[in-house]
Amino acid sequence: MKPRVAFICVHNSCRSQMAEALGKLFASDVFESYSAGTETKPQINQDAVRIIKDLYGVDMNETQYSKLLTDIPEVDIVVKMGCNVVCPFLPSKYEEDWGLEDPTGKGDEEFIKTARKIEEKVKDLAKRIKNKEIKL
């Protein structure tokens, strides 16, 4: 069975949503992607939606919504997006923090930079899972 990865931050509306979308796009053969937070937003950050659609042709509005940690199944790997505040806790066999700045309220360049960083990190995570570098 494929490991389940949860991308988490406080509000499940921007970075963790982008990571869920890119995880599904680039690593669905290696792991299942979920995202969640300790608080939800009525809708996903629309700048993030637009950028992911422009760059990757994926419409997050169609397939994703803001979820709480309790809304997702048990996971094997937790990836924290980078919280300057207290990061939510979710039990897992392995955890890492990507330390990404939240682009909310900034210009498109910041969203694009964040999306590209997430893409790189998702692919790297998939590679490490494949190579059994992460013990599950």
UniProtKB/TrEMBL annotation:
Give the GO biological process terms.
response to arsenic-containing substance
Which Pfam families does the record associate with it? LMWPc
Q: Does the keyword Membrane apply?
A: no
Where is each Phosphotyrosine protein phosphatase I domain found? 3-128
Keywords from UniProt, A to Z, are:
Arsenical resistance
Top-level taxonomic group: Bacteria
Q: Which SMART domains does the record match to this protein?
A: LMWPc (SM00226)
Q: What is this protein called?
A: Arsenate reductase
